[in-house]
Design goal:
Layout lengths: L15 H11 L1 E4 L4 H18 L4 E3 L8 E6 L5 H4 L4 H5 L6 E8 L2 E7 L3 H16 L8 E4 L5 E5 L29 H11 L5 E3 L16 H4 L8 H16 L3 E2 L1 E3 L3 H4 L11 H17 L5 E4 L16 H12 L5 E5 L12 H6 L10 E6 L22 E7 L15 H9 L11 H6 L5 E5 L15 H12 L5 H13 L3 H23 L27 H4 L5 E2 L16 H8 L9 H4 L2 E2 L10 H24 L7 H33 L11
Parallel strand pairs: 1-2, 1-3, 3-5, 7-8, 7-15, 8-9, 10-11, 11-12, 12-13, 13-14, 14-15
Antiparallel strand pairs: 4-5, 4-6, 16-17
Helix pairs in contact: 2-5, 10-11, 15-16, 16-17, 17-21, 17-22, 21-22
Bound molecules: beta-D-glucopyranuronic acid (BDP).
Beta-D-glucopyranuronic acid (BDP) binds next to loops.
Length: 688
């Protein structure tokens, strides 16, 4: 193909001993048949072994008696080498998506067994085995038992059907070609493979902005966001075609739907969720969708947010709003993912999601998941963790993360999000006393999980900047196992992507792991400020260039100080946390420095614990951030000759631009801090 294989490159294993051992154990494969997922398993084995081992496996429909060692993939009870060596109860009691990979002795044979309670589990187990080979791990004595921590692991595409633009996409057009569907593209299969290799089990292929704003808008991007049309009867066949590809890889398809669909599609007068005709319309629509797509996942909804219609149009609560869809999906096993990203005119946007949702905890149907962005503002470089994760014990919750780098340098800056996501998932909410991190809140219940705003587009490398493939990889791995460390995930990605040259592995890993800190420093000054980007008048706002003066309410710069008072006595955001956190953030002496100005408005010359003033720290961090990016570039440049030329040059060019942009941010921010504070930089770097 003319696009990249990402981490599924399957390059030849060049260690002779390992390759020999892999070949001896795996060249003959007895693989169960039947389900479409097993077709995917066989295809992947063929592709993987051809690359890694230089030959496709011999596939058997019965145990190959004459072969000493072989691979067995199938369900327990179905195949003797499995049923006679592994207690089926062990498998049937695993989570549905779990699997076991084990070396067993069966009769005269040594078998490598991959088994699982579901077809999807067999897909995951197969990809895991291939990953072991790509990572050069020994496989002589395997005993791996895996279960995903999170039940739902979903990608949200902000892709606009029909025009194929991608909202906040920086890697070209949408890969989904709705005009041509139900005709399929090879690229769908390859995307499904990438996702399945990580254990992603759901996709929403269309933007949460589905068009039809309840208020008229001058924004012509809205006309492009015609996602509501996918629910039209004649388009469901297209959705099913796409779903049929993803289904083979264990991935369920969902749709973003527009809350006013009963009006727009059904010709009703209202979309009031308490109106019986509206309820009937959703039920009929759900029946129709499931007739065409029997394993349809459900609906994702952005309601009453940024011009999208919602229950507030009818004075109904968000629970009433979500429940009507939930009732329609319920008989079919579908689920509503209802976004908590709701805000309107308010002095402090940070407090709004909690004010909207916390009071209605417990009022949602069982098949509704409230999908909460990681922070209270909007995917900023670093935010405190949303108060809602600790505030809705009676509701199924999902965490929404952003893979695409809307605020972290888009397709240019090499900003790796995994360290940020670790910080989010490890954050202690105190929801159930000390030791209730976000990852446990999410893993606690079946109707929960993690959703990520996608990053791929038509670009040959999928993600704009090649290095940003790591964000898709890391997202999937963390959804599966949030206990993995950032270092482990990064090492896996680099080895599968660039091979095992230790200099490359170490250099690229360190670069990625340090990139987020640098990004925070030059984009924000590192003390919790945010939202200092340029918006612009264009159809879709820019959100890339610096413009600290554009959103004064988020920055709180005045002649006497900077930051926003969000303490209990300020906007009240800090008071939405559980008690120990409220106290922590309320007091500038205990508030973590990296969030200080998010919670407090402080004098420019307020002294930090080491004696440096706030304004001086802002200057210093901005300069340090640029230095760090220069350092990243230098380290990448040191890899010339160790990474193939095409990838080397592509990334090197991005780094040249990354440095330029980091300098622009530093200069714009420092000038702004100086203008308001009139305090000179001690080191004379900021023009006066
Ligand atoms: C903001 C994006 C906007 C999205 C919105 C959302 O700028 O394009 O539509 O989030 O999450 O960050 O709905």
């Amino acid at each position: 193909t003319n696009y990249d294989d990402c981490w599924l490159r399957y390059e030849r294993v060049d260690d002779d001993e390992l390759r020999t051992s892999y070949r001896q154990r795996l060249s003959h494969a007895y693989v169960s048949e039947g389900a479409p997922e097993l077709g995917a398993v066989r295809a992947e084995l063929g592709r993987g072994f051809e690359g890694l081992l230089g030959r496709e496996p011999h596939l058997w429909q019965h145990p190959p008696r004459s072969i000493e060692r072989f691979l067995v993939i199938g369900h327990p009870e179905e195949m003797r080498p499995i049923s006679e060596t592994i207690d089926p109860d062990e498998i049937w009691t695993l989570a549905e998506d779990g699997y076991v990979i084990r070396t067993v002795e069966w009769e005269e044979h040594e078998c490598t067994v991959v088994t699982a309670p579901s077809d999807r589990g067999l897909v995951y187990g197969t990809f895991h085995l291939l990953r072991l080979l790509a990572l050069g791990e020994p496989i002589d004595d395997l005993d791996i038992v895996e279960e995903p921590a999170n039940n739902s692991r979903i990608l949200n595409h902000w892709d606009n059907p029909f025009r194929r633009s991608v909202e906040r996409g920086y890697a070209g057009q949408s890969i989904f070609d709705w005009e041509r569907l139900p005709d399929l593209r090879e690229r769908y299969v390859d995307y499904a493979r990438l996702l399945a290799s990580l254990g992603i089990n759901g996709i929403v292929p269309n933007n949460v902005n589905t068009g039809i704003p309840s208020r008229p808008t001058a924004n012509d991007a809205v006309a492009e966001r015609a996602g509501w049309q996918l629910l039209e009867s004649e388009n469901l066949e297209k959705v099913e075609a796409l779903a049929s590809v993803f289904r083979r890889y264990g991935i369920r398809t969902y749709l973003s739907v527009n809350y006013a669909a009963p009006i727009r599609l059904g010709g009703l007068e209202t979309a009031d969720p308490l109106d019986p005709e509206v309820q009937q319309w959703w039920q009929d629509k759900a029946d129709e969708v499931y007739d065409v797509i029997p394993d349809f996942g459900g609906f994702l909804v952005k309601a009453d947010s940024e011009g999208q219609p919602g229950p507030y149009d009818y004075d109904r609560s968000h629970a009433e709003g979500a429940n009507v869809l939930a009732e329609a999906l319920e008989p079919h096993g579908g689920r509503v993912w209802w976004r908590a990203f709701v805000y309107s005119e308010h002095d402090d946007r940070a407090v709004q999601a909690y004010e909207t949702f916390e009071p209605i905890d417990g009022e949602f149907h069982e098949n509704v998941t409230v999908q909460i962005k990681n922070g209270p503002i909007d995917f900023q470089q670093r935010e405190p963790i949303s108060t809602l994760f600790g505030a809705m014990p009676e509701t199924d919750l999902g965490c929404e993360l952003q893979l695409t780098g809307e605020y972290t340098g888009q397709g240019v800056h090499a900003t790796y999000h995994v360290p940020m996501w670790k910080e989010i998932l490890e954050f202690d909410t105190y929801a159930d006393g000390e030791g209730t991190p976000v990852k446990d809140v999410l893993a606690d219940r079946e109707g929960q999980g993690i959703a990520g705003v996608g990053i791929v587009g038509e670009d040959p490398n999928w993600t704009g900047n090649y290095l940003l493939q790591s964000n898709l990889y890391g997202f999937g791995r963390l959804c599966w196992d949030p206990d993995l460390t950032a270092e482990e995930i990064t090492d896996e990605w680099v080895r599968q992507t660039f091979g095992h040259d230790e200099t490359v592995v170490e250099t690229v890993s360190d670069m990625l792991l340090e990139s987020w800190d640098a990004c925070i420093d030059y984009h924000t000054g590192g003390l919790g400020l945010m939202h200092m980007m340029y918006n612009g008048e264009a159809a879709l706002e820019n959100h890339y260039d610096p413009a600290p003066e554009e959103w004064p309410e988020y920055v709180g710069a005045t002649g006497d100080g900077i930051g926003v008072d969000r303490t209990s006595s300020g906007s009240g955001y800090a008071a939405q946390y559980r008690a120990p956190l409220t106290d922590l953030y309320d007091d500038p002496e205990t508030c973590p420095e990296e969030l200080l100005l998010f919670f407090h408005h402080l004098p420019w010359e307020y002294e930090l614990p080491d004696g440096t003033t706030v304004v001086q720290r802002l200057y210093d961090n901005c300069f340090d951030g640029v230095e760090a990016v220069r350092e990243l570039r230098a380290r990448w440049n040191g890899l010339e000759g160790r990474v193939d030329d095409r990838r080397y040059r592509h990334v090197a060019e991005r780094f040249d631009e990354h440095v330029v942009q980091a300098e622009r941010w530093r200069d714009a921010l420092c000038a702004y801090f100086y203008d308001h504070s009139t305090v000179a930089d001690e080191n004379g770097r900021v023009p006066r």
